[in-house]
């Protein structure tokens, strides 16, 4: 099937090709607006190693200390995702577990700054969990890997604007999925239709030229 034939086929079924994406878009929109809002609270911390307190070191030694501190920051990020920290945070807040909340710990390779983002349906609880993580990391990392301190740069505040779900994105995906489904249905139906519809179909089936045909006559 050539591109021109495809466009001709879609034009013949234009109503269906337009209606199905609209229906799917409306269905996805209703489902998206029924989903509860999610809120994300974030806190940032600065990891200070014990070597940072030394003075009078050479530039080469300072570079080595900086690299070691950045590696330690990666270790702190890994510890933040451990079960020990999760259990400590749960006990600190008086809850059984952190199920229902997504905790994301990020650390750039060229900095000693950690960011902990907590996403959940309760805005205040998300902020409380993020701040509890920051508080617990200070004591856990000092005892486990010997950091000097993990200083909080910005405490997590209760978010007022939801971070999700991304409803416009869902609706756009629903519209595109409906469009692709409509095109696929039209093409498959055309391929499964083996009826002879034109003189060109007769030539392809019988491999003989058509010398004439009866025109369509209007009923009296």
From TrEMBL:
Sorted UniProt keywords: Cell membrane, Membrane, Transmembrane, Transmembrane helix
Domain Polysaccharide chain length determinant N-terminal, residue spans: 2-93
Primary location recorded for the protein, binned into one broad class: membrane
Recorded GO CC terms: plasma membrane
Protein's membrane topology: Multi-pass membrane protein
Transmembrane feature ranges: 16-35, 169-188
Molecular function in Gene Ontology: protein tyrosine kinase activity
Protein localization: Cell membrane
Family, per entry: Belongs to the CpsC/CapA family.
Name of the molecule in the record: Lipopolysaccharide biosynthesis protein
Upper taxonomic lineage: Bacteria, Bacillati, Actinomycetota, Coriobacteriia, Coriobacteriales
